[in-house]
Amino acid sequence: MNVADSQLLASELEKLGHSAAGGVGDDADIMIVNTCVVRQSAEDKGLGRLQLLRKIKEAQPEKVIGVMGCMVGVRDPLWMRQRLPFVDVFMPPSDPTAMVGFLRERQDEADVLTMEEEGRAQRDALQDGELVLPLHERGQLVSAQVPIVYGCSHACTFCVIPFRRGVERSRRVGEIVAHVRSLARQGVKEVTLLGQIVDRYGVDIKDGPDLADLLHIVHQVAEEVGIERIRFLTSHPNWMTDKLLHTVAELSRVMPHIEVPIQAGDDAVLARMRRGYTTDQYRKLVAKIRKMIPQVAIHTDIIVGFPGETRAQFMETYRVLEELKLDKAHLARYSPRPQTVSARRMVDDVPDAEKRARHKMLEDLQARVVAEINAQYLGSRVEVLVEGKYKGRWRARTPQNKLVFFEAEGDWKGRLARVEVTWTGPWSMQARLPKEEPAADPLLVLAG
Fold first, then answer.
1. Residues 6+ apart with CB under 8 A from 277
2. Of 40, 226, 243, 334, whose CB neighbour count within 10 A is largest?
């Protein structure tokens, strides 16, 4: 979501005639930090980067510094204004309006008109679509994100997103379609539809389309404009419907890749998290997904060390992960976030050393599980979408979002390739372009 927000901001700045700089310091007149606060480490990183920019601002006061994202939130960030007086502009998530207004005020009218004319010239090639990608990314990105739901109204006890990104708001279908078409004109071949709980798309719109309906619409557009693949994330067990699963199974350009977090494998912990399901319900959901979508890859999220989590409760999480054998698990150590229920009402009583030990146990387990899953691909042929070159080899992904590297002559970026897997590991696979099999002799075919 932050990547998409940064691209939107860069696009708006280009409309004013600005262009991307090579780096901070002397190169950049405008420096913006887009922040995340899902974990404490992310917040610390954002504040650390801002302190580095402070020295530049003190030496060159004419530089413009902005902060965007969840650290700012949807309400006036008074504490940030007091703590970071050198910052010129504070922007909420997904909204570059404040920076655009600030820059307009600093320029006289003639400069604004000149710069906007330059920006308009840059956008002419995009016909009447909105400029989604900044100039330096246009024609370079193979995969891009399309936000379809902003904010969240579910409010798990550990999650700060509802407080920082606001209530759930679904984008209109027309906006989403224009976004996808615009990306296609800029060379993108894969789109990922984003939402904090993406399955809740349309819940806030009376009699509006749901995610399954939207996927049908985007799939039709993809066929028209050359988008090869469609993905969506992140799902929630309570909102994963049979209709949605049937849609994924039915539409050829929607990938068999489902991200549906469990967060914990113990029912008492899940209840304290306010997740709204049990481990047994999650098991049944995984079984249903696998039955309805052939060759599906299922990803999950897990938090270790949630307040009150005992060693025995953690081991339930371990056993669930061991049993379900999911294709990927995003692991995180719990850290209390301001304003959340867990921070206000629960004691962060699992020592950091224990959190790290639990995290390492799941990490090691998942490495073994995924190695076993990926080993089944050895010797098989899979279709991959090539993202670009990495260390001399082509980097690509399977429909299940598994990373594959292969060597080949020519330019494969943005193309689909059918490759033969020659090596597998837990985090990636290696492959080669198979040798073409000789065509059968037509006389032999007829004689046969």
1. 237, 238, 270
2. 334
CA separation for the pair 176, 237 (Å, rounded): 24
**Tokens coding 394:** 């082509």
Looking at residue 223, the DSSP 8-state letter turns out to be H
Q: Are 158 and 306 in contact (CB under 8 A)?
A: yes
pLDDT at 14 (0 to 100)? 87
User: Considering the chain, what is the average pLDDT of its residues?
Assistant: 90
pTM for the model stands at 0.88
**Phi, psi for residue 391 in degrees, rounded to 5:** 50, 45
User: Which residue is listed with tokens 């920076």?
Assistant: 99
- Residue closest to 432 by CA, chosen among 404, 402, 391, 398: 404
DSSP H helices, 16-143, are: 40-59, 78-83, 97-106, 109-123
SS3 225: helix
Residues forming a β-bridge with 169:
150
- pLDDT at position 440 is 39
| SS3 of 398-416 | CCCCCEEEEECCCCCCCCE
Three-class SS state of 74: coil
Q: What are phi and psi of 362, to 5 degrees?
A: -70, -35
User: Above pLDDT 90, what percent of the chain?
Assistant: 68
Structure tokens at 246: 């049937």
Phi/psi-derived region of residue 323, left when phi > 0, alpha when psi is between -120 and 50, beta in every other case: alpha
> Which 3 state secondary structure label does DSSP give 100?
helix
CA 248 to chain centre: 19
Nearest to 134 by CA among 11, 280, 229, 41: 11
Rounded to whole angstroms, the Cα distance separating 329 from 309 reads 19
Residue 53 CA to residue 255 CA, distance in Å, equals: 41
Which tokens sit at 49? 């980067």
